[in-house]
Amino acid sequence: MVKSIGPKKIRTAVFISGTGSNLENLIKFSLKKNSPIQIDLIVSNKKKAEGLKYAKLYKIKKKIYNYDKKKNSEKKTLKDLRLNDIKLVCLAGFMKILSRNFIKKFKGKILNIHPSLLPKYKGLKTHERVIRNKEKYSGCTVHLVSSRLDSGKIIIQKKIKLFKRETPSSLKKRVLKHEHILYPKAISKVFANL
Ligand code: GRF
């Protein structure tokens, strides 16, 4: 567990499925003195998720549930959240859609980051679709999670201009850099008045 110095920080869980660059970035942010959060739990639906290495590296508890049987996995996850006194969930590349019931139980306390200017380009293959449609701009969004995919109140967005020879992979890289700035900003914004 990451110990905090100074005022009490918000106990946070981060849910991942893959690389976990946003996870590592949030961990680094949480270790800053002025950060309102501390990361106490990492949840993954993939036991081979690369991002799980950060659990070991930063000595954070991890839980893995495959989410194929969603109801069962969500039940176990909710129990973990309760046992660890988690007050905030940050989805960071978590590729499963949480049920209405789960979201209701954690209402207003689940954030997600999405690599597009929502409400445009919800869902997968965002960068491919943006380029195919010859968009001039794209970006990323942090929003509260509601029971509809990539919907819910938008907290903050970053808009970037596409290069002439942009490819899905160059755009992904560029957007990801901005995601790493945006997610901590969004968290600070949400908890600024606490
Ligand atoms: C990010 O682009 C995020 O916006 C999307 O999935 C990707 C996760 O990347 N939801 P990483 O695992 O944090 O590196």
Write a compact overview of the structure shown:
The protein has six helices and seven strands. By secondary structure, the protein is of the alpha/beta class.
Any idea what the radius of gyration is? 16 Å
Largest sheet: 7 strands, mixed
Q: What are the low-pLDDT stretches, counting only 5+ consecutive residues below 50?
A: none
Mean of residue pLDDT? 94
Tally the helices: what do you get?
A: 6
Instruction: Write down how many β-strands occur, each being a DSSP E stretch of 2 or more residues.
Output: 7
Q: Strand portion, in percent?
A: 15-25%
Structural description of this entry:
This protein has 194 residues and is an alpha/beta fold. Helix content is 34%, strand content 23%. It has six helices and seven strands. It has a seven-stranded mixed beta sheet with strand order 3-2-1-4-5-6-7, sandwiched between helices. Helix 5 (126-132) packs across helix 6. The structure holds 5-O-phosphono-beta-D-ribofuranosylamine.
Task: Output the keywords.
single chain; 194 residues; alpha/beta; seven-stranded mixed sheet; 6 helices; 34% helix; binds 5-O-phosphono-beta-D-ribofuranosylamine
